[in-house]
Amino acid sequence: MPTKLAWQCWVAIFEVPLCIFEIADVFEGGSIFTVGKVCCHAFIDLTDDCKIEVFQHAKFFPVVEKFCSILVADAATAANATAAAAGDRALLPPGSA
């Protein structure tokens, strides 16, 4: 029986439409590229306790975590570049203008 923490963690993933299927596809040997940006944000935003509770024995976990970290970072970099090109300094982190 899953713990209360495990249920709370899964709820965070289930709140993103199709995210659980994207992660399950990787678990079943599918392509990491099926995990989308929104799902990656949900995955990255899980607390460390959640990640340990739910994914501690999942061999795919480090791969998904690294992929999502890169995807989320690339999305932030792209958003900042777009904001800078548009002259919108409010979206840029302090000191980058």
Automatic annotation (TrEMBL):
Reply yes or no: does the keyword Signal apply: yes
Which InterPro entries is this protein grouped with? Prolamin-like
Domain Prolamin-like, by residue range, is 8-69
> Which terms under GO biological process does the entry name?
double fertilization forming a zygote and endosperm; regulation of double fertilization forming a zygote and endosperm; regulation of protein localization to cell surface
- Which keywords are on file for this protein? Signal
The record's GO CC annotations read: extracellular region; vesicle
Name the Pfam families on file: Prolamin_like
Q: Where is the signal peptide?
A: 1-21
What's the protein here called?
A: Prolamin-like domain-containing protein
PANTHER family from the xrefs? Answer: EGG CELL-SECRETED PROTEIN 1.4 (PTHR31181), PROLAMIN-LIKE PROTEIN (DUF1278) (PTHR31181:SF67)
